[in-house]
């Protein structure tokens, strides 16, 4: 694994071994992550780290509700998330990479559905970290940025300790299930889910590295004299 794969977390791990992750290691990772930038040091984030039977109940509840057609109920929303144009192309592109790696044919609807349900099962990882923020800050411009920063820092810290992680929204799309079994109080808003565990190096999708824009495509340099 290359240096930038670890530090920048270029790979999202979607297949984990069942080996438990020690609580002490998770505490170490969280301590590192919480040095992430925070606007005016507000530190709006909180973490609910779930494993064992409570996590199994969340997996089961998420799966049952989705198969039953219960509408999604994510708590943090800023507007429509229907991607169009190049953004939709990138979304489809990484899906094609993953399906190809897993050998899932376009017409294989059963396997495609199972792949989607993996997200609702927290990718079968041994640990799930639910990132929340204090409801009193709801509507703040900076709070979502801070939670994104700490989530990225958490993933990078996990990589630096040999763990794998994937930030996802599917695991919190049935928020009543998550709130009940994680014991999340009403003064918290559920923001994101991070599946965490030891990478299964035999899992084909773990080798996928998503295509990214080049620096030239993404950047405009001003005042550099060229």
From TrEMBL:
<comment type="similarity">
    <text>Belongs to the nitroreductase family.</text>
</comment>
<keyword id="KW-0560">Oxidoreductase</keyword>
<dbReference type="InterPro" id="IPR000415">
    <property type="entry name" value="Nitroreductase-like"/>
</dbReference>
<dbReference type="InterPro" id="IPR029479">
    <property type="entry name" value="Nitroreductase"/>
</dbReference>
<dbReference type="Pfam" id="PF00881">
    <property type="entry name" value="Nitroreductase"/>
</dbReference>
<dbReference type="GO" id="GO:0016491">
    <property type="term" value="F:oxidoreductase activity"/>
</dbReference>
<feature type="domain" description="Nitroreductase">
    <location>
        <begin position="7"/>
        <end position="198"/>
    </location>
</feature>
<protein>
    <submittedName>
        <fullName>Nitroreductase</fullName>
    </submittedName>
</protein>
């Amino acid at each position: 694994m290359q240096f930038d794969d670890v530090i920048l977390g270029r790979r999202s791990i979607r297949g984990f071994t069942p080996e438990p992750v020690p609580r002490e290691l998770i505490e170490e990772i969280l301590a590192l992550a919480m040095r992430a930038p925070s606007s005016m040091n507000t530190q709006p984030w909180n973490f609910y780290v779930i494993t064992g039977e409570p996590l199994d109940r969340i997996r089961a509840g998420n799966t049952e509700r989705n198969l039953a057609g219960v509408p999604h109920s994510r708590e943090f929303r800023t507007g429509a998330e229907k991607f169009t144009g190049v953004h939709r192309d990138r979304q489809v592109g990484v899906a094609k990479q993953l399906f190809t790696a897993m050998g899932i044919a376009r017409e294989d609807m059963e396997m495609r559905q199972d792949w989607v349900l993996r997200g609702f099962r927290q990718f079968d990882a041994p640990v799930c970290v639910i990132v929340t923020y204090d409801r009193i800050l709801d509507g703040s411009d900076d709070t979502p940025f801070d939670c994104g920063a700490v989530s990225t820092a958490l993933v990078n810290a996990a990589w630096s300790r040999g763990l794998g992680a994937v930030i996802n929204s599917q695991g919190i799309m049935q928020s009543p299930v998550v709130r009940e079994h994680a014991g999340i109080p009403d003064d918290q808003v559920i923001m994101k889910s991070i599946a965490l565990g030891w990478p299964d190096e035999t899992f084909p999708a773990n080798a996928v590295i998503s295509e990214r824009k080049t620096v030239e495509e993404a950047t405009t340099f001003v005042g550099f004299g060229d």
